[in-house]
Amino acid sequence: MSGQCFRVTAAGRVLQNARGGSIAEEPTMAILLENKEECSGLLNDINETIQDPDTPADGARNSKPYRRRFLILIPILSLSLITNIITLSIILSSPKPHQAPSKYANLHLTHTEPYVLLTDYSSTNTTFTDTLWHSINIDSGVVALSDSFAASHNLRTAQRFPWDTTKGIYILHGFHNLHCLKIISISLFEFQSNRTQSRPWHHIAHCLDALRRQILCDADDTPRATERRVEVVSGVGQHRVCRDWGELESWAKAHTACYKRPENPGDEVGLKRFMHCPEGSGYVVDEGYVPEDEILVGLPEESIATDVTREV
Predict the structure, then answer these.
(1) Cα–Cα distances in angstroms (integers) from residue 277 to residues 18, 90, 263, 290, in the given order
(2) Domain range enclosing 214
(3) Which family would the database say this protein is a member of (predicted)?
(4) Does any domain span residue 199?
């Protein structure tokens, strides 16, 4: 009876075998148990033959592929979540430009800066502050820009840069204003200490007027909050949005004009000030070069001759 499976009634009578034939005799209990085992084995064999060969037979083993896939998905999902968090953090923390970038060096408003009452440049230690003001250097603000750059930005062409005559010499306005502040400060320190004025008055007046006009041009509308304090001060603790001066310096140095101003304005004039090309600039200095211009003018300490009247 091996290989057969019997269906049994509640009373134990065999009604039909697996092949569809009817059987009249009633088997003993031992035969039924034996046939039950054979039937079980045969059904297992049949199930194994029709089952997906990649799927384990028992339930515990059947869940392993799903568990394995889930374990693989965990690090992928975690990595995706971390990447999204980092990206969002960068977007939220990145400074947003509050206006269009600057026209020439493409500078953005990148950070905030608080209004303060005093800095080292306004310290009561006049010796220290005098040193700070003297140390301000505007040499890198003198740049050589190509005529094509000037044309694309609607700039006037300028006097020729001696080591590449396809370029003109310019001074960046921010550096010019810083230069003006520097010489005004030097003049005030000289006055305060009863020293002889090293800068002519008409140059000081020119710089004062240049800064006045810049303030009017900027028309800064920031409301500075007043406080009940002894000092005449406002806006302390408020923040303004600024460009990065270091970025402007980097841009200027990338367009160097090899300019260096001596400590004493009369020590070097004209072409000699442009003989300080940094290493890697690509410029070759020719000490025998004869400039087309009679004198290189329009630069700090050279722009206003001593015989020019104040009105110029």
Answers:
(1) 104, 39, 18, 18
(2) 109-220+235-280
(3) Belongs to the ustYa family.
(4) yes
Structure-token match 């009633």, residue found: 26
CA distance 179 to 42: 102
- CA 268, 274, 276, 279: dihedral to nearest 10 degrees? 180
**7 domain residue, yes or no:** no
The SS3 of residue 300 is: coil
Neighbours of 142 (CB within 10 A): 26
H-assigned helices in the chain: 29-50, 59-62, 64-93, 126-135, 147-152, 173-192, 201-218, 245-254
Flag residues of the chain having pLDDT under 70.
Answer: 1-66, 70, 88-98, 229-232, 265-266, 293-298, 300-312
On whether residue 68 sits in a domain, the answer given is no
End-to-end distance of the chain based on CA atoms, in angstroms? Answer: 127
Token pair in block for residue 200: 């002519």
φ/ψ of residue 8, rounded to 5: -120, 140
Dihedral of alpha carbons 8, 12, 17, 18, sign: positive
Contact 224, 247 (CB under 8 A): no
What is the pTM assigned to this prediction? 0.64
Distance of CA 257 to the CA centre of its chain: 27
Residue showing tokens 């384990």: 56
pLDDT at 131: 92
- Write out the two tokens for 181: 């502040």
Q: How many residues does the chain have?
A: 312
Q: What share of the chain is helix, strand, coil (3-state, %, to 5)?
A: 40, 10, 45
DSSP state of 47: H
- Is beta strand 164-171 parallel, antiparallel or unpaired with respect to 239-243? unpaired
The answer to the question of residue 47 being in a domain is: no
Amino acid (1-letter code) at residue 236 = V
Q: What digits encode the pLDDT tens for the residues 45-62? A: 444 444 444 444 455 555
